Amino acid sequence: MSLMAAFNEATKGWDPKKDSTQMSSKLPAGDYNVIVEKVDHPVYKSGWDCLRFTMLVFDGEYAGRKEFVQISLAEKKKDGSPLPDFVVAQNIRYVVKIAEMVGLKLTETNFNGNETDLYENFVQLFKPYTGKSMQMTISTRPNRKDPDNPYRSYDFGPGKQIETPAAGQGSIMEQLQNVGTEQVTDENLPF
Prior knowledge:
five-stranded antiparallel β-sheet, 4 helices, 5 strands, 21% strand
């Protein structure tokens, strides 16, 4: 990518008079064909932990970009009060929906246990399904407390199937990591 092209990409929709230089790298609301690149169980400094799906866009304008879908299976808030039932139910549906889209069948017994153990179990259950494709729909709604960070919601459905790379071309994930990069040789130097 040339600096001129990089300039056009970096300043598209950005107003230097009022927008931060640290623009969000999150994908805009829309539909994306993605693969499950990774499933893990991060524990943050605050003590909050979750089940995290790293979704890699494999085609279109945003090919090679990632979205991190973090799902909490907590039933209580930090103060010990119960989370609303609809929040817990939605988070369970996220896990079940992603599982269904990659071909993993979950039942109620998969949700039996303490939160931390469940995250670790899900990481192992999803491991054989990394590289599977689906469609991810991102929608946003206003966040009155922090207008610069709207709430993000996800839905998942059957998506475009990934074409299997020819022998010697590497996996689709390896190919997507190189999107936008070009091997520099003496022949393609600009001077």
